[in-house]
C-alpha cells in the first residue's frame, strides 16, 4: 500500500515535521476506516482536552520553583520547591505535567534545546502554599520547569510509534494481498494499540478514545484516588461507596483494614457492573486491576 510505504519512509526521516507525518496517518485512518487511529491523530494534531485523555508518553516529570518575598521586603528568586510540603492531592500537579497542546506547538523545541519551558501554578494553589516553604517568606509566584529533553523525547516517541505501527501494518497487508478491507477491524485496533499506545489500554464507548491505565496507582488510605481509579472501569460512585462500607466492615480489631470476606465479595460482583458507562474491559481484567488498586489502598503488597 503506497500510503503506508510513504509513512515508513517519512518516519525514518527526522527532518520531516511530525505534524506532516500525523496528517499522513490521519488520511490512512480514513482509508482503513479506523476510529482509534483517527482519534489519536486528531488529538495529537489538535491537542488533548484534559489530563485524563493524555497518553503516558505525553506526561513529563517536572521540577517546581518559586519566587519569595521576605517579611522585610527582601526577595528570594528561583528557589526549588519540595513537593513533600504539599498535600497528597497537589503533589502530582507539582511533579508531573501533561502536555496538552497540539504537537506542532512543541516542534520548535527540537531546534532550541536550551529554551526555558515553564508552566505557572494555578493562582489559588500559590496562595494556598504561600507560607508553607520558608519561615518569614511569602511565596509570590511558582511554576513547573519542563525539561526540553522531555519534550524532545515525546516528539521522538510519537515518530517512533508511527513508524512501528506502519511497519507492522505493512507486514499484515502483505499477508492479505495489500488489501486493507481484508484486515479485520479488531486486528487493526490491536496493531494500533500495541504499537502506538503500548501498556494497558482500553477503548471508551463514546468516541473510541484510548485510555492508558496500566500506570495508574492508588495512594494508601486514600479512598478518593481509589474511587477515581475504579471509575476508569465504569464503576459508579454508588458502587464505590459500597466498597468503602465493605472495607470498614472488614477492619480488624486493631483498626487496620484487611482484605476480608465482604471486600472480596465486592470484587467478585464486579462482573455485574463493570463497563456499563466506562471502558470496554473484560471482567477478569477488571477484577485484576480493582484488586491491585484495593491492595495499594489498604497498604498491602501487590
Architecture blueprint of SSEs:
Layout: H1 2-11, H2 18-32, H3 35-46, E1 59-61, E2 63-70, E3 75-80, H4 88-91, E4 96-98, E5 117-120, H5 123-128, E6 137-146, H6 148-174, H7 185-197, E7 201-203, E8 210-212, H8 223-231, H9 237-249, H10 261-268, H11 283-298
Antiparallel strand pairs: 1-4, 2-3, 2-6, 5-6, 7-8
List keywords for this structure.
11 helices, alpha+beta, 302 residues, 8 strands, 3 domains, 13% strand
Report what the structure shows.
- The protein has 302 residues and is of the alpha+beta class.
- The protein folds into three domains: 2-55 and 152-198, no CATH class; 56-151, no CATH class; 223-298, no CATH class.
- Helices cover 44% and strands 13% of the residues.
- The strands form three sheets. The protein has a four-stranded antiparallel sheet. A two-stranded antiparallel sheet has the order 1-4.
- A hairpin with a 4-residue loop joins strand 2 (63-70) and strand 3.
- The longest helix has 27 residues, at 148-174.
- The model is unreliable at 203-209 (pLDDT under 50).
Amino acid at each position: 500500500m503506497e500510503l503506508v510505504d510513504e509513512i515508513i519512509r517519512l518516519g525514518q526521516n527526522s527532518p520531516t515535521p511530525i505534524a506532516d507525518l500525523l496528517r499522513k496517518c490521519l488520511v490512512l485512518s480514513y482509508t482503513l476506516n479506523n476510529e482509534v487511529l483517527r482519534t489519536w491523530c486528531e488529538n495529537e494534531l489538535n491537542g488533548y482536552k484534559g489530563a485524563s485523555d493524555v497518553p503516558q508518553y505525553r506526561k513529563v516529570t517536572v521540577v517546581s520553583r518559586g519566587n519569595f518575598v521576605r517579611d522585610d521586603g527582601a526577595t528570594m528568586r528561583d528557589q526549588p520547591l519540595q513537593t513533600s510540603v504539599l498535600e497528597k492531592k497537589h503533589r502530582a500537579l507539582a511533579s508531573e505535567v501533561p502536555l496538552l497542546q497540539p504537537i506542532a506547538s512543541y516542534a520548535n523545541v527540537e531546534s532550541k534545546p536550551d529554551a526555558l519551558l515553564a508552566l505557572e501554578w494555578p493562582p489559588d494553589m500559590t496562595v494556598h502554599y504561600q507560607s508553607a516553604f520558608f519561615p518569614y517568606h511569602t511565596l509570590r509566584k511558582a511554576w513547573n520547569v519542563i525539561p526540553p529533553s522531555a519534550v524532545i523525547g515525546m516528539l521522538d516517541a510519537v515518530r517512533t510509534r508511527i513508524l512501528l505501527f506502519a511497519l507492522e501494518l505493512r507486514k499484515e497487508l502483505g499477508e492479505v494481498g495489500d488489501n486493507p478491507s481484508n484486515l479485520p477491524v479488531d486486528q487493526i485496533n490491536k496493531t494500533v494499540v500495541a504499537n502506538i499506545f503500548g501498556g494497558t489500554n482500553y477503548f471508551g464507548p463514546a468516541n473510541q478514545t484510548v485510555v492508558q491505565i496500566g500506570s495508574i496507582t492508588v495512594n494508601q488510605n486514600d479512598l478518593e484516588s481509589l474511587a477515581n481509579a475504579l471509575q476508569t472501569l465504569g464503576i459508579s460512585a454508588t458502587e464505590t461507596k459500597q466498597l468503602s462500607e465493605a472495607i470498614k466492615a472488614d477492619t480488624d480489631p486493631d483498626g487496620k483494614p484487611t482484605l476480608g470476606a465482604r471486600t472480596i465479595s465486592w470484587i467478585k460482583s464486579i462482573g455485574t457492573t463493570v463497563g456499563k458507562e466506562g471502558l470496554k474491559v473484560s471482567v477478569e481484567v477488571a477484577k485484576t486491576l480493582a484488586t491491585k488498586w484495593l491492595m495499594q489502598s489498604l497498604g498491602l503488597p501487590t
